[in-house]
């Protein structure tokens, strides 16, 4: 059965709902496995007031019994929007009496006709013939990424059964970048488990989710974000996501829509605020000769199960649309949030006149949190490709298939 998921829910609706189908039976799964990543998503310097209202915790409503998946049942999860209590009339599913002065005042206060450049407001309002731009804002809000993190956390739990780890860190925020030696540290972390653990601990201890052993960059980044906040502006940046322990052969060269790098790129680009994706060296491959791009292969004399080694990973762990056994790496460009305190020039869809854009409570910088969402999307793609390759209705069957394959390729 293919792995797939659906989400529903609005930013200020009563709850978010997720259905994830295709996870094998008898996989250990606890709500705590999901809640850890939900908490990570809500962190990061530069977040807005919503993070102080919500404390996201998942509730399993189907597909999990006694701490394990069972019987091939779809996993259903929900997350409560605490803020909904202040929006009962505005987001009511039932018709409301707008002749009531108090109700009408609430509706008028939340009515939107001034669209935000860079958001779904304009195109969505025209496409769906929305009488109120809030019809678009509520579903297009990045609140939906909470559901992706929940689905991705289940997929992470699945992948960990096979030694696959996914992590992210921030490379740049606005004009500021981490030190150049961080790139070397990342390379080392992806090759050595002990160094990976140290790297991960350092990143998770930073509100910016940057690797900063010196302790100097963290405050510099915070001061920069604060200066942008005072100007009423927002910031984007670049996040790197990598996956360790990925076996050879996920994805395929056979058809365009089965290529693993294409699937990863699509998943990343589907995420709110993402505007670019680079696998491995990314655009740099167009600037240097092939002899400096392609990861040359040598016979390995150590206990490497594949008996091969590569001193570089410029292609980011993929060749010909398939994983090649090297760590998967990609860099993702995240644009600044389009809701600015210092409003942008726009239009009012009601009056058809020039106007300042609408402002709704907003973050200044979501780059650190975006990494957690992008980890989730990477996990979903890899879990889909893994199950396509190895199948299995139960986790034991999947493991047998995986172990058999690993034994097969070790003979090559």
Please tell me about this protein's structure.
- The protein is α+β, with helices and mostly antiparallel strands and 412 residues long.
- It has a single domain (4-82, 143-280, 315-339, 362-410), classed as Chorismate synthase, AroC fold.
- The chain contains 12 helices and 17 strands.
- The chain has a 5-stranded antiparallel β-sheet with strand order 8-7-9-15-10. A 4-stranded antiparallel β-sheet has the order 1-2-6-3.
- The model has no long low-confidence stretch (mean pLDDT 93).
Percent of residues in helical segments?
Answer: 25-40%
Q: Which CATH class?
A: Alpha Beta
Biggest sheet, in brief?
5 strands, antiparallel
CATH architecture: 4-Layer Sandwich
Number of strands: 17
Summarize the structure.
By secondary structure, this protein is of the alpha+beta class. 34% of the residues lie in helices and 18% in strands. It has helices at 31-42, 50-53, 101-110, 121-127, 134-140, 145-160, 181-189, 193-204, 217-230, 260-269, 367-390, 395-410; strands at residues 4-8, 15-21, 58-62, 64-65, 68-69, 75-80, 165-173, 176-177, 237-244, 274-279, 298-299, 308-309, 318-319, 322-323, 328-334, 345-347, 354-356.
């Amino acid at each position: 059965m293919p792995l797939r998921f659906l989400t529903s829910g609005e930013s200020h609706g009563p709850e978010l709902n997720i259905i994830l189908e295709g996870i094998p039976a008898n996989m250990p799964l606890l709500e705590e496995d999901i809640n850890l990543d939900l908490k990570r998503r809500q962190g990061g310097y530069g977040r807005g007031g919503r993070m102080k209202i919500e404390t996201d915790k998942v509730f399993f409503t189907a597909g999990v019994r006694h701490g394990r998946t069972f019987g091939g049942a779809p996993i259903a999860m929900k997350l409560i929007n605490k803020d909904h209590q202040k929006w009962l009339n505005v987001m009511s599913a039932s018709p409301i009496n707008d002749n009531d002065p108090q109700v009408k005042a609430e509706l008028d206060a939340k009515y939107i006709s001034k669209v935000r450049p860079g958001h779904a407001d304009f195109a969505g309002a025209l496409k769906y013939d929305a009488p109120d731009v809030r019809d678009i804002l509520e579903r297009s809000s990045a609140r939906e990424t909470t559901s992706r993190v929940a689905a991705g956390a289940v997929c992470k739990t699945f992948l960990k059964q096979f030694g696959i780890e996914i992590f992210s860190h921030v490379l740049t925020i606005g004009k500021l970048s981490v030190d150049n030696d961080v790139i070397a540290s990342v390379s080392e972390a992806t090759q050595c488990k002990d160094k990976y653990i140290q790297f991960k601990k350092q990143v998770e201890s930073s509100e910016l989710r940057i690797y900063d052993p010196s302790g100097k960059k963290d405050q510099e980044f915070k001061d920069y974000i604060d200066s942008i906040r005072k100007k009423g502006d927002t910031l984007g940046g670049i996040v790197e996501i990598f996956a360790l322990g990925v076996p050879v052969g996920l994805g395929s060269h056979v058809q365009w829509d089965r290529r693993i790098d294409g699937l990863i790129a699509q998943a990343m680009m589907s995420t709110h605020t993402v505007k670019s994706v680079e696998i491995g060296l990314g655009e740099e491959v167009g600037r240097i000769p092939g002899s400096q791009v392609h990861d040359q292969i040598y016979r390995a004399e150590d206990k490497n199960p594949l008996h091969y080694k590569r001193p570089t990973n410029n292609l980011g762990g993929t060749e010909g649309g398939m994983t090649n056994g090297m760590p998967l790496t990609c860099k993702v460009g995240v644009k600044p949030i389009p809701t600015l305190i210092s409003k942008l020039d726009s239009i009012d869809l009601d009056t058809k006149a020039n106007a300042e854009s609408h402002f709704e409570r907003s973050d200044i910088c979501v780059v650190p949190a975006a990494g957690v969402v992008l980890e989730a999307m990477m996990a979903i793609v890899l879990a889909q490709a893994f199950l396509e390759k190895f199948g299995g209705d139960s986790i034991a069957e999947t493991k047998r298939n995986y172990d058999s394959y690993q034994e097969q390729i070790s003979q090559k």
